[in-house]
Amino acid sequence: MTENKKIPYKISEYVKNHFREDFLFEVKDVKEVKGHRYYRVEVAKDDVIHKLTFNENGALVEEVADDAFPTDWHEERGFDDIP
């Protein structure tokens, strides 16, 4: 991770505009790739974790959404249900 932890203003504005209420926001990684800086940000909202990747200009280049609490197979089927 680079030492510069300040993110471009456009990234914080994107998060503010798309995740206005009840969110947690964390910069997970900042990487240099072929001379360009990319920011990986995680936003948690409504039991979903949004993994966002932004370029150095603050433009969104990728978004992946995962359940914050995936279903545990132990909870789906009780031990009493096993034959």
Explain how this protein is built.
This protein is of the alpha+beta class and 83 residues long. 17% of the residues lie in helices and 43% in strands. The protein is built from 2 helices and 4 strands; from the N terminus they run αββββα. Strands 1-2-3-4 form a 4-stranded antiparallel beta sheet, with helices on one face. The radius of gyration is 17 Å and the shape is elongated. The termini are far apart.
Mean pLDDT equals 80
Radius of gyration: 17 Å
Terminal residue distance:
50 Å
Approximate strand percentage: 35-45%
Number of discrete helical segments: 2
Strand neighbour order, sheet with most strands: 1-2-3-4
Order of helices and strands: HEEEEH
Largest sheet data: 4 strands, antiparallel
- Shape, per Cα inertia axes: elongated
Classify the helix fraction into a percent range. Answer: 10-25%
Low-confidence blocks of residues = none
The assigned structural class equals alpha+beta
Total count of strands: 4
